[in-house]
Each structure stands twice: as structure tokens, then as C-alpha cells.
Specification:
single chain, alpha/beta, TIM Barrel, nine-stranded parallel beta sheet, two-stranded antiparallel sheet, 11 strands, 41% helix, globular
């Protein structure tokens, strides 16, 4: 019996340390050995405070964890000897993603654009912004522009599309009207994921309906998902998205702070503390978002780059994954969201791509990472 247990231990150890597809049942058991690490990985405090969070959008300011720029749990796993590998022996990966919240200028954006004028946009830009709104143009259908930029660095990305028009910010686009553009994205080897509606994130049947609608457009299974505005309720959100048929999620992050919500810079399988079991959906946590830095952290491009460079360097050392969320409207200056994101934010995105490319990172979409690091 003793020999059998030793053999099981060695088998699990080898599977977790030498395989590019880690054994997460074994990893969970290893994390449990350190109470603080385990509680951080679980984000145990979220079980307690989730009921009082407005709209299930957790602010970084409400949590006890203040060193979110350091992936503490991932550091622990690396020190324990765990090995994370990527395609062609790349040291780390970058998951590029774009949430397609809008394809045209909304009334809310027009109203917001009045506030910063003329600080973020010149007269010509303001004129173009207003005329685009009045003419009902669709300046955020700029997917080819984004794809071409990423191709310069041998990169591909994931575009998360809404499949419902109902939203807290007003009526959204109809997915059918951009079917050709979506198919073109697929033809360019990029991925299409579902951006769940604001009012459906906690409703299994609504999510299934949206998934089916998007799959009718894509003519293929949609395996990736991200909740609108990063709405998330632990562990229920993971359970619902798993039941809806998704293989991976990328909603887990703070809307008002970049970094690592549960100390992980690696994709991981969550653990349900209520049920005491692994949840069968891969989480590729959000690390960096354009609107997070601009609107909530209130930092400019120069300060953002200083933080991002440190994050990239640290993730490289830990063989992790950097998940980037850059909205499609950010690339459309001077008619970017409320005209707030000037052209420097597009340049910052390219600067990230260039830096990661020089470091020989695997710059790809969610489905490729999900397939490589897990049994799919």
C-alpha cells in the first residue's frame, strides 16, 4: 500500500511539473498546504462580500489584497517547481482580446465627449465625432485595422461580441448586421468569443440563447466568453458559464485596477469552496485593460507603460500569460469612446506588441492558449 501511494505521488508530480498541461487536481492539493496562498487563490473573501457588491462588479478598493501587481500564487507555484510551457518553447504568452461593446457612437458617448473638450481632442476631431453620430456612421467597425496592426508582430487575437441589444448603457448593435465582418475576422485566423449581456451574465438560459445566436453567425462552436463590464460572482459565474458550454472564461479581473485578482498570472481551473471541487472551466484572467488605466486609475500613456513593462518582465520570469483587453473603439481616434482615447493609446498597444515580440512571446488568442495548456 505504501509503495502504491508513493507511485501515485510520483505520477502526479511528473504530470504537474514536466507536462505543458498541468494536473490541476494535484496543484489544488499543493496550494492547500499554505493557508494564505490557498485563500488568495480561492479569493475566499469574495464569498463573504459578494452579496453586498452592486451589480456584481467588484472594486479592487473593497478587497484586502493590496499587492495585486505581484502574482503571489503563481510565484509560489514556480518556487514549488511547477512548469508552464507554451507553443514552440516560448517562455510566456500574451492573450490579445478586444471587447466589442459598440460599433457606432452612442448618445452616452456624445454626452461624455463634451466634458473633456478641448483637452483630449482638437476642433477637427470634435467636429468629426459629432458628424459621425448625426450621420449614424459605424466608426468602430475597425476590425481589419486591428488585425493588420497585430499581423506586423505575428500576432492574432480574440474579439468578444455581444449577442443581445439590451444593455444598461442603452440599446446595442444587432449581431446580424455585422455577420460579414465577423466571418472576415475568422478568415484572418482570429477567434470570436461571446461578450455576455449586462442583464444575462447570471442567467443560464439567456447566456445559452446568446451563445447559440453567435454560433449561428460564426457557423462554429464558440468556446470563449467574457462577461460585460467584468461582472462576476464567485464561484457561481464559473459554474454557469461551464453549464452553458464554454471551455474558457476571461472575465476574472478588476474593472478599476490592473494586476492579478487572485494572485495568478497563469490560466487556471477554479475551485468551488462550497462544493469542495474543481470547476471544469479554464480561467484566463484579465490583467490589463485600456479603460481601467484611463478612466479608473486615471493614468496617462507614459505612466501606464512603466507599469506594463514591469508586469511583462515579471510574467516572463514566471512563464505566465499576460491577458490584454483593448476595446475596438480605442483604435478609432478621434472618434474613440467619447473621444477620450487619443492616438497615443493605439501607439501604447503597439508598443506592448513590439516589446513582447522582441522577447519572443507567444502572442495569440484565447482558444489557442486554452487548447495548449489544458485537455481540450
Amino acid at each position: 500500500m505504501k509503495e502504491y501511494l508513493i507511485m501515485c505521488y510520483i505520477t502526479n508530480l511528473m504530470a504537474s511539473h514536466s507536462n505543458s498541461k498541468p494536473n490541476w487536481n494535484y496543484i489544488h492539493n499543493e496550494l492547500k498546504k499554505d493557508k494564505d496562498i490557498w485563500n488568495l487563490f480561492l479569493k475566499k473573501e469574495e464569498y463573504r462580500i459578494s452579496e453586498s457588491i452592486k451589480n456584481d462588479i467588484l472594486s479592487y478598493k473593497l478587497t484586502k489584497q493590496k499587492n495585486v501587481l505581484i502574482p503571489i500564487v503563481s510565484e509560489y507555484l514556480i518556487k514549488k517547481g511547477f512548469n508552464f510551457e507554451y507553443e514552440d518553447g516560448k517562455k510566456f504568452a500574451v492573450f490579445l482580446s478586444h471587447d466589442v461593446d459598440d460599433i457606432n457612437i452612442t448618445g452616452k458617448q456624445l454626452f461624455r465627449s463634451i466634458i473633456p473638450y478641448p483637452f483630449h481632442r482638437d476642433y477637427f476631431g470634435t467636429k468629426k465625432f459629432i458628424f459621425s453620430y448625426l450621420k449614424k456612421e459605424k466608426p468602430y467597425i475597425n476590425f481589419k485595422k486591428i488585425i493588420n496592426l497585430e499581423e506586423k508582430y505575428n500576432a492574432i487575437s480574440t474579439f468578444f461580441f455581444l449577442a443581445t441589444q439590451q444593455d444598461i448603457f442603452g440599446k446595442k448593435y444587432h449581431i446580424d448586421e455585422i455577420q460579414d465582418e465577423i466571418l472576415d475576422i475568422i478568415d484572418n485566423n482570429c477567434e470570436i468569443g461571446l461578450h455576455t449581456g449586462f442583464y444575462s451574465f447570471d442567467d443560464l438560459e439567456k447566456i445559452k440563447k446568446e451563445k447559440k445566436k453567435l454560433e449561428k453567425i460564426t457557423k462554429k462552436r464558440v468556446i470563449g466568453v467574457r462577461n460585460h463590464i467584468l461582472r462576476f460572482k464567485i464561484p457561481r459565474t464559473w459554474e454557469i458559464l461551464n453549464q452553458a458550454g464554454f471551455f474558457y472564461d476571461s472575465s476574472y479581473g478588476y474593472y478599476d485596477m490592473i494586476g492579478f485578482r487572485n494572485g495568478m498570472c497563469h490560466p487556471f481551473f477554479p475551485y468551488d469552496l462550497n462544493q469542495n471541487k474543481k470547476i471544469d472551466i479554464l480561467e484566463i484572467p484579465v490583467c490589463v485593460a485600456d479603460i481601467t488605466m484611463f478612466s479608473y486609475m486615471k493614468i496617462g500613456v507614459k505612466e501606464a507603460w512603466i507599469l506594463l513593462k514591469k508586469l511583462i518582465d515579471n510574467i516572463e520570469k514566471l512563464n505566465g500569460v499576460l491577458t490584454i483587453l483593448w476595446h475596438n473603439w480605442t483604435f478609432s481616434y478621434p472618434v474613440s469612446y467619447a473621444g477620450l482615447f487619443d492616438s497615443e493609446w493605439t501607439k501604447l498597444y503597439e508598443k506592448i506588441l513590439k516589446y513582447c515580440c522582441e522577447k519572443k512571446a507567444w502572442i495569440t488568442n484565447g482558444v489557442n492558449i486554452a487548447k495548449y495548456v489544458s485537455e481540450y
